[in-house]
Write a structure and sequence with these properties.
Blueprint (H helix, E strand, L loop, with lengths): L49 E2 L9 E5 L4 E8 L2 E6 L10 H9 L5 E8 L9 H8 L14 E10 L2 E2 L5 H12 L6 E3 L7 H10 L4 E6 L12 E5 L2 E11 L10 E8 L2 E8 L5 H12 L4 E2 L13 E3 L4 E6 L1 E2 L5 E2 L2 E6 L13
Parallel strand pairs: 1-10, 6-8
Antiparallel strand pairs: 2-9, 3-4, 3-5, 5-6, 6-7, 9-10, 11-12, 11-15, 11-16, 12-13, 14-15, 16-19, 17-18
EC number: 6.5.1.1
GO molecular function, one term: ATP binding
Enzyme class: ligase
Amino acid sequence: MTRRPRKTTKPLLRDDGAPIQSRPIRKRNPAQPQLLFDPMPDRIEPALAKLLTKPPVGDDWGWEVKWDGYRLHVHIEQGGVRILTRGGFDWTDRFPVIAKAARALGPATMIIDGEAVILDEHGRSDFGLLQQSLGASGNTPGALASPAVLYAFDLLYLDGHDLRGVEYRSRRHLLEDVLDRQEGAIRISEEFYADPAALLEEARRHGLEGIVGKKGYSLYRSDRFGDWVKLKCVQSEAFMIIGYEPSPNPAIGFRSLLLAAYRGSELAYVGSVGTGFKEREVLQLRKLMDKLPWKRKQPPLPYDGKRKAVWVQPTLIAEIEYRAWTNDNRLRHAAYKGLRDRQDNADVYRMTG
């Protein structure tokens, strides 16, 4: 049945030429329900994945590739875009391609959680290539802009709604809707529902760092609560550089770097790394260490080794890949991956026991 058009008793346009006025706005009745609106957080501490040696029990887990790059939160606001590191530093200028892609997602307001990476010729994230693109030298001044892309894996805020109290599965669906299969500088980190042991073996076969699992019904909680877990094909952690073993050939720079981790609040020696360097990296690192405030013959921590060393102020943080630990807490088969920028707020490894 068709509805008859209503006759307008007060037409919008009148013939008398009198000015058109809107109805006076009445004060809001406080008894009426209010629309909920959450202001966008200025910064959110990221949720972190807990390292496990075997997959968790249960089937409510989604699995992704563990990307090897820089953790970022991309804030898309009415006033523009901000790209914040895990430590809260604004690196918008250092990731211009990601920033441009984020602006194209507007006018919606949102906070996207993800990892900035550069892929090698085999499609694997390469931390060394990312560091080279940023001109990473342990100091932000003079840093370069990177053509990195962002693999997004969570959505923390969307158009006036703080999503941290929403379960992960729903946040993931919203993120997929927002990105809508984009393949540009911001793309979805693909999720798999499969046997994690089989996925880890597949990751190992393709030379990936590992996999990350997220509990479907979990809320977004900052820090390391076990709602997110990681399984690694190889171990990779951040260690403090406390010195270097000089090379007989001064033109080479050094023979190896001496490393430390935290035991409680104090640094403890964990061995050295002498492989994984490119020639240019060795010379660059030597220059950086020579610029540190002090060098001395005495170590900055208890040391019973026999190496002839030049000790430096514990300032520079290196990402080190290794296979295992010895019984006396030394790294086995260590290889240098890159220098962490201090503003990245990388966790220096903490020893237990």
